[in-house]
Design brief:
383 residues; alpha/beta; 3-stranded antiparallel sheet; globular
Length: 383
């Protein structure tokens, strides 16, 4: 048996998502075709779109800074191949559509690679890339944000919940600063959708497989009036800015996962709160990376002095855990997120990320943590 503690890399597929997808593994109609099979497929896509939008609405309903009107009246949801494509479309699309006097792009040092690498690439194409540092707790200084954003800024990108350390950035305030300066605000809500209240934004990137949906599909929410240049040219099937044939099966799975996430928001939140407190008790002597207060409780990034995380992961074969982002695994470099917090290379390499959620039982978590602690103790004894 393998205990799964890598929810930030991907989440287990919800049974409801699997059930919604199965009929469309046999049905082969193209959702962009005009005949009956195509119309049936298109209807499934639109039901899924509405289910994802409903999750957005329910995620904003309790937000102090959320929208006061429905998303249907304020924007649209474009399906993509995943959050990486959504972030690229948002940042590049906004930059390419921006007036010539707005050539500055602002982001944070702890962003996901799909944002940081895109911003830095645009920096080599004549745009001004500004990457703001964070403090030791992983949070950005809002005064530094305000100083960096001016009338030259076209877009500001900030992650809601950090994928490596779980820290929740003050995105509502960052959004307000950006939009007051006339810049667009992109929120990478991949790790926060359905778990943390969404902020007011112009663009929001999400991914299905982080909310118990299938891999290979994500979405970009675009506020009404926001103009983006397409990344790809072709049939322009999605809102005129995203070309390519959609998969009804993936859309159906995403929609079903979103529906369940909307229904279970409070239950899931309470469950991870319980698991987080239990995990902290069992990891006495370990240091939490990033703010303990301002974080999503389903992400616990911890370190222990002298530990080699890579060796620990190899030794604990009965537990699926990681040392950080799955996108950067195998690079051999310390996590850029942990380095941004001011950790040394040794401290970064002694850190592990534990992710848990809806399908993690407290008993399984305890057994997994016992295995991790025992392996860490053995390693340090013979170090």
């Amino acid at each position: 048996m393998t205990f799964y503690l890598d929810y930030q890399a991907t989440t287990p597929l919800a049974p409801e998502a699997r059930q919604a997808m199965e009929p469309w593994l046999d049905k082969f109609g193209n959702p962009h075709s005009p005949h009956r099979l195509g119309r049936e497929a298109a209807a499934t896509v639109e039901v899924a779109r509405e289910q994802v939008l409903e999750l957005f609405r329910s995620s904003r309903a309790k937000s102090r800074d959320g929208f006061s009107t429905s998303l249907e009246a304020n924007g649209s949801l474009v399906f993509t191949s995943g959050a990486t494509e959504a972030a690229n479309l948002a940042i590049k699309g906004a930059a390419w559509a921006a007036p010539t006097q707005r050539r500055r792009i602002v982001t944070l040092a702890t962003e996901h690679a799909c944002v940081l690498d895109t911003v830095m690439w645009l920096g080599r194409q004549g745009f001004e890339a500004v990457v703001l540092p964070v403090a030791a707790d992983g949070l950005v200084d809002l005064d530094a944000v305000a100083a960096a954003i001016d009338d030259r800024t076209t877009i500001v990108a900030a992650m809601l919940v950090n994928n490596e350390i779980g820290v929740i950035q003050p995105v509502a305030e960052i959004s307000r600063i950006a939009r007051q300066a006339g810049a667009l605000f992109l929120c990478d809500a991949v790790q926060g959708l359905g778990r943390v209240d969404l902020p007011e934004a112009d663009l929001i990137a999400v991914s299905a497989h982080k909310i118990h949906g299938p891999k290979g599909i994500g979405a970009l929410w675009i506020r009404e009036g926001v103009v983006l240049e397409p990344l790809m040219h072709g049939g322009a099937q999605e809102g005129g800015i995203r070309s390519g044939t959609l998969s009804p099966a993936l859309c159906a799975g995403f929609g079903a996962a979103a529906r369940v996430a909307a229904e279970r928001q409070e239950l899931d939140r309470a469950h991870v709160e319980q698991l987080f407190g239990s995990a902290l008790e069992r990891l006495s002597g370990w240091t939490v990376n990033g703010s303990v207060e301002h974080r999503y409780r389903g992400n616990l990034n911890v370190r222990r002095e002298g530990l080699e995380a890579a060796r620990l992961i190899s030794d604990v074969r009965g537990v699926a855990l990681s040392a950080g982002s799955a996108c950067a695994s195998g690079s051999g470099r310390p996590s850029h997120v942990l380095k941004a917090l001011g950790l040394s290379d040794a401290e970064a390499r002694s850190s592990i990320r534990l992710g848990f959620g809806r399908y993690t039982t407290e008993s399984e978590l305890h057994q997994a943590l016992d295995l991790i602690v025992e392996a860490a103790d053995r390693q340090l004894v013979f170090a």
